[in-house]
Every structure is written in structure tokens, then in C-alpha cells.
């Protein structure tokens, strides 16, 4: 089978209409490119469940709160095509900017509440950019299902809320975080780590796991948080933007692992911002 490379919305809509008319189910995998095994796991899950799979690749300027981050974001279209080839997806949609944000574009989709915490409070405007582009992804592709990674757990909750609130008929499917052998969550921005930064970053998962184990034995979070922050500093990590224990549903701050809970972290290493989260079983 052949994969169609699409750059124009009209072409995307025509394909999608044809598939729907034939009664086929459609999945979309939204990405910003620089693909790795984490993205490919979403593609595999989508292929297993749907007749047609679209991979969306677009470095969305509206979700970057820092111009340097946008300028430095890896863009690897040729390698992305090579990585997707064995997966034989039906379409790779790499829209031109004006297909997403035509001249005069003046609409923002904003999810309140869930976006006040974690990455929302540290990256002003980020989730407005995400919610706006993801509503467009859903509407442009007409997909029945959309696949997202738990690595971006807050994004997943925001996207679910947005789809429900706007009555977009799509099922949002969560896929587990794919990790390196060290436990480091795969991420496109990891490419920007120096060898020394990679060695430090490799320690993050163990810090989270150790913290989760103590919480699972019934300890309260705040004394453990102070120790974990000291350990991160001693291991060479830079600023910890947040290290929080929160409920999975609603992202409320917790002091004990009492309800389905997760640890969330955002930390700088070597000029690169890493995020991660892991579930914590109730004590
Ligand atoms: N390690 C991973 N495991 C599972 N899903 C992932 C992983 N990394 C990214 N994803 C998911 O892939 C989708 C596209 O993410 P994106 O293109 O931003 O990649 P990324 O690796 O998260 O890059 P970055 O965080 O550096 O922007 C998102 O749904 C994201 O949660
Ligand atoms: C969902 C997304 C593709 C929207 O630009 C992006 O936030 C991402 O890659 O996670
Ligand atoms: N994976 C989340 C996209 C971002 O960091 O902008």
C-alpha cells in the first residue's frame, strides 16, 4: 500500500470523506514530528484499532511560549518519513501553516481549570495553543479516534475535556509512555541533550520510582518531596519547575496516594526541559 503525503486541507478532507463513505474507521496520531519509538507506539495502537491511520506532523507555533524553543525544535521530515515507512500508514498530513492558521485567524480554544497547574502555570498560553490546534486536528481529519501519549498526561486531560465540551465526536485514546532502558521517557527534545546531559537525565526515572514506592507504603508527600529535590540537585539536575503528587482525574494536589494518583515532574537538564509522570498506587 502507498502512504499519501498531504499538505492541503482540501486533499485531507477529500480522502477522509471517501473513507467514511466506504464505512471505514479513521484514526489520527497528532505529532510535532522528530519521531521516535514513543510516537510509533501510538501509530501501532491506531493501526490495530482502525481501518485508516493519519499521522499529523506540524510544529504548532501557537503552543510555544518561548521563541528559542520554537526555533530549536527538531525538524526532521525526511527521517520521519523513513521511520513511518514500515508502518504503512494511510496518510501523513504535514499541513502548510496557512492550512491551519489562514490569514485573519482569530479563534482560541481555552480549557480552564485543568490548565492552571503543572505545565499550564509554567508555560503561559501553551495549552491554549494545544487546545486550539487539537480542535483543528479533530475537525480537519474527521477522525473517529485520536491517539495521545501519557507522557504528556496533562495534555491528554485537556484534550479530553476540550473534545467533550465542544461535542466533537471522537474517542481520545491514551497510550503508555515508552521509555529508554534507563527509564527516561522518550521525547523529541531529548535529541538536544549533550552526552553529559543524557547521563544526568537517565537518573530521573529512578528518583520518581523511589518516591512512588515510599508513597505507596503510606508516607506523606511533602517530606519526601524535599528529599527528592535535594537528590535531583545532587545528581546534577537544574531547576525543578514542579514536582507534584496529584489526582489523575482533575489534577488536584494531594499529600497522600489516596485516590488514583500520579507524580508529575518538570525539570531542566543541560538547557533542556524534561517532563515525566508515573502512577502511584493507593497506599
Ligand atoms: N515516550 C513517549 N511515549 C508515548 N507517547 C509519547 C512519548 N513521547 C511523546 N509521545 C506522544 O506523542 C505525541 C506527540 O508528541 P510530540 O510530537 O510533542 O513528541 P514529544 O516527544 O512529546 O516531544 P516534546 O515533548 O519534546 O515536544 C503526544 O501525544 C505525546 O504524548
Ligand atoms: C498534540 C500536539 C501534536 C499538538 O500540537 C502536541 O502538543 C504534541 O506533539 O504533543
Ligand atoms: N509534547 C508536548 C508538546 C510541547 O511540549 O509543546
UniProtKB/TrEMBL annotation:
Primary location class: cytoplasm
Binding site for ATP: 32-39, 149-152, 178, 186-189
SUPFAM superfamilies on file: Nucleotidylyl transferase (SSF52374)
Function text: Catalyzes the condensation of pantoate with beta-alanine in an ATP-dependent reaction via a pantoyl-adenylate intermediate.
UniProt EC number: 6.3.2.1
Provenance organism: Pseudodonghicola flavimaris
Pfam families: Pantoate_ligase
Domain of life (superkingdom): Bacteria
Leftover remarks: The reaction proceeds by a bi uni uni bi ping pong mechanism.
Subcellular location: Cytoplasm
Gene3D superfamilies found in the cross-reference section: HUPs (3.40.50.620), Pantoate-beta-alanine ligase, C-terminal domain (3.30.1300.10)
UniProt family annotation: Belongs to the pantothenate synthetase family.
Pathway: Cofactor biosynthesis; (R)-pantothenate biosynthesis; (R)-pantothenate from (R)-pantoate and beta-alanine: step 1/1
Chain positions recorded as beta-alanine binding sites: 63
Keywords of this entry: ATP-binding, Cytoplasm, Ligase, Nucleotide-binding, Pantothenate biosynthesis
Chain residues that bind (R)-pantoate: 63, 155
Gene for this chain: panC
Name under which the protein is recorded: Pantothenate synthetase
Description of how the protein assembles with itself and partners: Homodimer.
Active site: 39
Gene Ontology MF terms: ligase activity
NCBIfam families on file: cyt_tran_rel, panC
InterPro entries: Cyt_trans-like (IPR004821), Pantoate_ligase (IPR003721), Pantoate_ligase_C (IPR042176), Rossmann-like_a/b/a_fold (IPR014729)
Reaction it catalyzes: (R)-pantoate + beta-alanine + ATP = (R)-pantothenate + AMP + diphosphate + H(+)
Amino acid at each position: 500500500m502507498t502512504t499519501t503525503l498531504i499538505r492541503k486541507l482540501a486533499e485531507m478532507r477529500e480522502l477522509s470523506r471517501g473513507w467514511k463513505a466506504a464505512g471505514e474507521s479513521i484514526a489520527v496520531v497528532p505529532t510535532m514530528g522528530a519521531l521516535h519509538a514513543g510516537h510509533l507506539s501510538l501509530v501501532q495502537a491506531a493501526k490495530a484499532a482502525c481501518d485508516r491511520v493519519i499521522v499529523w506532523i506540524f510544529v504548532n507555533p501557537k503552543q510555544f511560549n518561548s521563541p528559542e524553543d520554537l526555533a530549536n525544535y527538531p525538524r526532521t521530515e525526511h527521517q520521519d518519513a523513513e521511520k513511518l515507512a514500515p508502518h504503512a500508514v494511510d496518510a501523513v498530513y504535514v499541513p502548510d501553516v496557512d492550512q491551519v492558521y489562514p490569514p485573519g485567524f482569530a479563534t482560541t480554544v481555552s480549557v480552564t481549570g485543568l490548565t492552571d497547574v503543572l505545565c499550564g502555570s509554567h508555560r503561559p498560553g501553551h495549552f491554549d495553543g494545544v487546545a486550539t490546534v487539537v480542535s483543528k486536528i479533530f475537525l480537519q481529519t474527521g477522525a473517529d479516534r485520536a491517539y495521545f501519549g501519557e507522557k504528556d498526561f496533562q495534555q491528554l486531560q485537556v484534550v479530553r475535556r476540550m473534545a467533550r465540551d465542544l461535542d466533537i465526536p471522537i474517542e481520545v485514546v491514551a497510550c503508555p509512555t515508552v521509555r529508554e532502558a534507563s527509564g527516561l521517557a522518550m521525547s523529541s527534545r531529548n535529541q538536544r541533550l549533550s552526552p553529559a546531559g543524557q547521563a544526568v537525565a537517565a537518573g530521573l526515572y529512578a528518583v520518581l520510582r523511589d518516591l512512588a514506592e515510599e508513597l505507596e507504603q503510606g508516607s506523606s508527600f511533602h517530606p519526601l518531596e524535599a528529599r527528592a529535590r535535594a537528590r535531583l540537585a545532587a545528581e546534577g539536575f537544574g531547576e525543578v519547575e514542579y514536582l507534584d503528587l496529584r489526582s489523575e482525574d482533575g489534577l488536584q494536589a494531594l499529600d497522600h496516594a489516596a485516590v488514583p494518583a500520579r507524580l508529575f515532574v518538570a525539570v531542566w537538564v543541560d538547557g533542556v526541559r524534561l517532563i515525566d509522570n508515573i502512577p502511584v498506587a493507593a497506599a
